Amino acid sequence: MRRTARPTHPAARPGRRGRPGRGGGPSTAAGTALGLLATGLAGAPALAATLEEHEITGVQFVNDDCSRNEYVIDARVTGTTDDVGGFDRVRFEVWDDGALKDSRTLEVEVGTTRDLSAFLSFVGLYGGGAPGVGIVISDVDGADVEVGTLDVVDPFYPDDVDGPCAFDVERIGGPTRIETAAMLSEQKFVSADTVVIATARDFPDALAAAPWAGQLGAPLLLTHPGGLSAATGAELTRLSPEDVLVVGGSAAVGDAVLEDVQASLPAATVQRISGADRYATAGLVAQQVIQDSSPEVFVASGQAFPDALVLSALAARHQAPLVLVRSDEVPSATGAALTALDYDHVYAAGGTAVLGDAVLDEVAGGQPWTRYQGADRYATAAAVLEQFPAEGKVLVATGQDFPDSLTAVPVAARTGAGVALTRPEAVPAAVISEVDRLITGFSFPLITVVGGESAVPPAVQAQLQALFGAAAPPAARPSGSSTTGNLPQE
Predict the structure, then answer these.
(1) Coil vs helix vs strand at 175
(2) In the structure, what pLDDT confidence band is assigned to residue 10 with cuts at 50, 70 and 90?
(3) Interval 323-374: pLDDT, tens
(4) Rounded to whole angstroms, how far apart are CA atoms 165 and 183?
(5) d(CA 400, CA 376)
(6) Residues above pLDDT 70, as percent of the chain
C-alpha cells in the first residue's frame, strides 16, 4: 500500500499541539514599482487586510520565439479578518491583455503583520498587445473570492533582457553538485535578499533547510566544509543578498565558509543556525518556518535520505516545518522543537523500517499522522508527488543522491512545481505518470531536469521530451491585437 493514515474520530480529535513558531522574509527580482498604503486602497471594505509597504519587481526574458515573464511582489500585510483558521487571505495576480496569467494566495495570521513574497510567472507572446502587464493585489475570503482590491498597477513594465524562453524540457546542471546548485540559482533567481547555504557532503541540514529557504524566497546553495567554491562565491556576489543563513555546525560548514561569505559580501549579515547535532539543527530551523492556517509538521529520517527528498518539497509547498528523527526514537532535541510548534497533522515518508509507527505516534502526540510509502524510494517519491496539484511545472532530479533534488525545493516552492525523482536509466513508470499529470492541460508546461548528464543521463531527458510529442513553440502574436489595458475591460 502506498499511503496509510492513522485516523482519529472527529468528535474525539484533540486540539493542536504546541504553540506557533517564528520566521519569514522576502525576495526580489529586477524592474521595480514601489507603493505605500497605510490602510489599503481607498474604497476597500473596512474588514479588508491592510496593505502597507509593497514592491513589485519583474523581468521579461526575450528571444526570437517568445518571452518568459517573472514577477515578485513583496508586500507587508496586516491580517484583520478571520477568513480561515484565524488567518486573513490575500491574492496576488498578473494579467496580460485581459487574461489572468498566474496567481498566488497567501495568508497572514489575524492581528499580526508579515512580509509576504509572491512569485508569478508565465510564458508570454512579446509585442503588439497592451503595454506591460497588470498586477492586482486583492483581499479574498476563505473560498478565494475577492472581497476588496488593495492595489492595482496597470501597466507595470518589467525589465526586458535577452534570455531563455524555456518550455517543454530544459536542463540545468553542472559537473558537480555545487555547480548545479549555483546554476539553478542563477537561472531561477534574478535576485534574492536572502540566501541559504548548507554542506554538500551530507543531507540532513539541506533537507531541513530547504522548506525554510522556499518560504524565504531564497536559493539553497551548497559548500565544501572548508571554504566556498568559486561557483558558490560567484553566485553570492551576483545575488548580493542582505542576509546569508548558514545551516549546520562548524563540522558541517567550517568557520572559513562564513569568513569567505563575509569577505565576498562585506555589507551582508551572515548568521549560522546550528545545534549540537543534525536533529537539534533541524529543530532550530523548523521553528523559523511560519505556518499557515493548516498547521502541519513533516517528519523524515535523519539517518537516510531517499524517502524524504520529495517530502521536503511538499513541506515547502505547505509552508510547514520538517524535523528529523531516528528510525526507532525521537531525539530529545527534536522533541523539544516539537513542543514549540503548532500542528494538527503529521506527514512522513518511508516504510516502518525507516520510521517506526511508535516514532510517528510520539511525534504526533495524539494528532493524526499520514505515511507515504512504496516498494522503493521511487514508488515512495511517486506517492508524495501525487499530493501536488497540477500547475504545469516539474523539476526532475536523480534519486541516487540528495543534492540536486534538495536545491530544487526552493525553486519548486517559488514556481508551484512538483519535484520528481528518476533512476539513472529511466524514469520509473509511477513517477512518469505523475509527471504527465502535472503538465497535462497547460499551454506552456515546463520540465526542468536538474543535474548534469552524469546525474540524469540524456536517455532520461529524451523520455521526458517524449511526453510533449511534437508540440509547437509559442506562435508570434498576431498583428492588430493591441488592447488598451491588461485587466479585463468593463
Answers:
(1) coil
(2) very low
(3) 999 999 999 999 999 999 999 999 999 999 999 999 999 999 999 999 999 9
(4) 16
(5) 12
(6) 86
* Per-residue confidence (pLDDT) for residue 12, from 0 to 100: 31
Give the three cell numbers for residue 452: 548534469
Strand order in the sheet with 87-96: 99-109, 87-96, 133-140, 146-156
Residue 350 half-sphere exposure, CB side, CA atoms within 13 Å?
Answer: 28
At 479, the amino acid letter reads S
Q: Which fold has domain 178-274?
A: Rossmann fold (3.40.50)
Residue range 19-162, CATH number: 2.60.40.10
Percent of the chain predicted with pLDDT > 90:
77
Report in angstroms the alpha-carbon separations of 116 from 28, 79, 283, 325: 11, 11, 23, 31
CA distances from 228 to 174, 179, 201, 262 (A): 16, 11, 13, 11
Give the residue range(s) of CATH 2.60.40.10 domains in the chain. 19-162
Distance from C-alpha of 242 to C-alpha of 470, rounded to nearest angstrom? 44
Place of cell 500542528: 343
Contact in structure between 411 and 184 (CB atoms under 8 Å): yes
CA distance 319 to 112: 17
Is residue 172 a contact partner of residue 183, using CB atoms and an 8 Å limit? yes
Is residue 412 a contact partner of residue 317, using CB atoms and an 8 Å limit? yes
Q: Look up cell 560567484; give the residue.
A: 234
Taking the C-alpha atoms of residue 118 and residue 286, their distance in angstroms, rounded to an integer, is: 21
Intervals of CATH 3.40.50.980 along the chain: 178-274
Model confidence pLDDT, tens digit, residues 153-194 = 999 999 988 877 777 999 999 999 999 999 999 999 988 999
Checking if the pLDDT of 280 tops 60, the result is yes
Over its C-alpha atoms, the chain yields an Rg (Å, rounded) of 22
Q: Which three cell numbers stand for residue 75?
A: 508586500
Higher pLDDT, 323 or 478: 323
What DSSP element (H or E) covers 449? strand 446-450
422 contact partners, CB below 8 Å, separation of at least 6: 378, 396, 397, 398, 399, 428, 431, 456, 460
pTM to 2 decimal places: 0.88
Are 242 and 269 in contact, with CB atoms under 8 Å apart?
yes
Residue 167, pLDDT score: 79
